[in-house]
Amino acid sequence: MAATAARHGSFVGNSRLLSDTHPSTSSRLRDCETVSLHSKGCRRKNVCDDVPSSSLWGQQLEVLSAAQRIVHWHRERGCAAVPRLVARGSQQTQFTFPGVPSVESEGLSSQGRRGDLLRCNAQAQQVARIPARTPDEKCEKVPVSRIRNFSIIAHIDHGKSTLADRLLQFTGTVEDRLMKGQFLDNMDLERERGITIKLQAARMKYVAADGETYVLNLIDTPGHVDFSYEVSRSLAACEGALLVVDAAQGVEAQTLANVYLALENNLEIIPVLNKIDLPGADAEACKKEIEDVVGLDTSGAILCSAKEGIGIEDILEAIVARVPAPRDTTKEPFRALIFDSYYDAYRGVIVYFRVMDGEVRVGDTVRFMNSGKEYEIDDLGVMAPNQLPVKALYAGEVGFLSGSIRAVADARVGDTITIAGKRAVTPLPGYEQAVPMVFCGLFPVDADQFPDLRDALEKLQLNDAALKFEPETSSAMGFGFRCGFLGLLHMEIVQERLEREYNLNLIITAPSVVYKVHSADGSVVMVDNPAQLPAAEKRAFIEEPYVRISMITPKDFVGPLMELAQNRRGEFTEMKYITEARCELVYELPLGEVVTDFFDQLKSRTKGYASMEYHLIGYRRNELVRLDLNINGEPCDPLATIVHRDKAYQVGRALTEKLKELIPRQMFKIPIQATIGAKVIASESIAAMRKDVLAKCYGGDISRKKKLLKKQAEGKKRMKSLGKVDVPQEAFMAVLQLERQVT
Ligand SMILES: Nc1nc2c(ncn2[C@@H]2O[C@H](COP(=O)(O)OP(=O)(O)OP(=O)(O)O)[C@@H](O)[C@H]2O)c(=O)[nH]1
Q1: Which residues, in sequence order, are CB contacts of 537 under 8 Å at separation 6+?
Q2: Which string of DSSP letters, residue by residue, matches 521-542?
Q3: For residue 734, what pLDDT is reported?
Q4: CA distance 461 to 469
Q5: What residues contact 2, with CB distance under 8 A and at least 6 apart?
Q6: How far is CA 383 from CA 121, 589, 627, in A?
Q7: Which residues are annotated as part of the binding site for GTP?
Q8: At which positions is GTP bound (predicted)?
Q9: Ligand 1 pocket mutation pick from 62, 155, 162 by most atoms within 8 angstroms of CB
Q10: Is residue 299 helix, strand or coil?
Q11: Where does 438-509 sit in CATH, by number?
Q12: What topology is assigned to 144-322 in CATH?
């Protein structure tokens, strides 16, 4: 009985327990021939087949994930007998251990009792902890044919970072005890907001089913439309991409945009249907949607649950089998493409790059082709996922280098690295320059912080290649910078990073897009700052940027979305049904209307179900005017905006009213006016604080009273001409905030 039990052990019980016992299981498994993992009471028919009907589904998934990891653990450590998954049933998962002599294995019983499992688990703590690999083990050189470089792309929140976590965990790249959710999102801001902002690279070692060890370089990418520039850069460093689609939500706007980016880069795309553990997941419908909308063949699509760790091995196998290996160009002269970099206060600029050809070693002097600067490499390594030094990197690999590079401009993203003094090579194509869509002024609250702000922006630009800036002076705000961003979220993130990482206190002006201003003499100037708009008499007309926006929404919300787009001067282009329940709405509308709170409105009107994606389609002429705000007769430049003539009155009213509320009363009357050129379109005034000069005049002659009042009025007038209105910081911020909403 005992021998049979050992040959055919079986775990029955609480699935959480089963999953926890996996290290023990692995130690025991080596002693058995066939082991079944049971999830008692699981009602599903086939694990990966269909939509789950009960919470027990999750339990079965946990069991499976534990089981897959056991197999991998054995395979990776070159155990004589690698267990093989032979059956995944409705209630049990079966493994075989070929050629292992059967011995009695305590803790495993054909009936499987909870106590046994607990004992098993306790022993496992001492016996079978899966050890982390040593650095050497992680970095040994592998032939190019066994390197795979891939990205994970998806719509926002479809589970890229969670999938990356599971891949790191499954391959033992990160120890279980060090694992935390969204491991690669290492910026505080990313973790707080639960979004990926920066691309992140990680190198994994994986022993595939064919018994070979592969190096997998993973680049996790952000999903928000504002960070698509990060996605395009990471894709250029890869040969394949995992397209993650939430099986409960289906194809979303950013899924499409990212697929097109991947296709432009000729990448092999592997569709992965994630979140199959969710009760609402509909894998078949999702596959059909991908085929119909995206046009990808989904016969090889993988069903997975990044949260439960299911399907992870299938994904790794698919990467090995389907993503092409890089070209073997180790013999050619060294060329590498910089895809990211950041500034380290102690080591200078750290450059992340993909080796395209040849090899590079510690001590080599490298040349950055664009800047022409040369540096000796002090440190060379791979991201595993923390930086791990190596002696050399070869064609096809992804790594980092540092060489006391102090000037941030010397090693820019997109530049080609070569070895100094060697045969000249042609630079790699690099990346298209990011085109900022939104501009705003950034000013330090404390004028002394201006040099710090410049320094911080330079360093941040290194890490955020889409950020553009140039100095700007404003009469009201002093010295600052005009900065360009890819969108509002990008702007917010940069502001927060500057304040947190560089300890700056900033004022940020209302965002503006870039206008094409045609002068009367035929010349054209690009204006991104309303304060610089030429006077009305010098202008012939203004053109503003237009975007084509695609919104994917459940059909119930079509009405509210159409209303939203129409209110924002949108022109309807088309509407098509993706499935019976969801459709795509396409509009063309001014970028200026999109970069305000369009996204928030879209989410709130559709209870968060709709998604959007947009791209620039060109410039169109419109009736645009510059709206100025005068406080006490003085124009306030930072509050000037460019708005459509039809909206100018409404915006002017709102802004003047808000300023009236916020500016404290002075000893004299303060007029606040919104003007277009010389024409005042809205005005408010803040009454003066007055002393009652007639208080002591009981009765008496009227001329006496008049004299006192006249004297007071004269005093106020003098005060007004000398007086300067200090707009408090909070008032300024509040008005800018309002401006962002109403313009
Ligand atoms: N139920 C379930 N939830 C999941 C699964 N994968 C991810 N999630 C959840 O989905 C949310 C978003 O996951 P992320 O991994 O941050 O998504 P992302 O695509 O990296 O998001 P961005 O980086 O912001 O684009 C998190 O709350 C995850 O816990 C899954 O397989 N099942």
Answers
A1: 520
A2: TS-EEEE--GGGPPPGGGEEEE
A3: 66
A4: 9
A5: 104
A6: 33, 43, 51
A7: 154-161, 220-224, 274-277
A8: 154-161, 220-224, 274-277
A9: 162
A10: coil
A11: 3.30.70.870
A12: Rossmann fold (3.40.50)
Please provide the CATH number assigned to the domain covering 626-740: 3.30.70.2570
Tokens at 35, concatenated = 């082991």
Would 516-622 and 626-740 be classified into the same CATH topology? yes
Q: Give the atom of ligand 1 at the shortest distance from the alpha carbon of 156.
A: 25
| Domain ranges, ordered by start, for the chain | 144-322, 335-419, 438-509, 516-622, 626-740
Give which of 662, 668, 678, 666 is closest to 729, Cα–Cα.
Answer: 662
- CA distance readout (Å), 399 to 83, 163, 363, 420, 480: 34, 22, 15, 19, 36
Is it the case that residue 552 has pLDDT exceeding 70? Answer: yes
Contacts of 492 (CB under 8 A, 6+ apart): none
Residue 479 main-chain phi, psi, to 5 deg: -85, 140
**Each residue's pLDDT tens digit, 477-487:** 778 898 988 88
Q: What is the pLDDT of residue 316?
A: 92
User: Which residue has the least CA distance to atom 4 on ligand 1?
Assistant: 307
What pLDDT sits at residue 271? 92
Q: For 516-622, CATH number? A: 3.30.70.240
Q: CATH number of the domain at 335-419, please?
A: 2.40.30.10
Residues 366-403 pLDDT 10s: 888 888 888 888 888 888 877 888 888 888 888 999 88
Bind-site residues? 154-161, 220-224, 274-277
Q: What is the pLDDT of residues 559-577, one digit of tens each?
A: 999 999 998 889 999 998 8
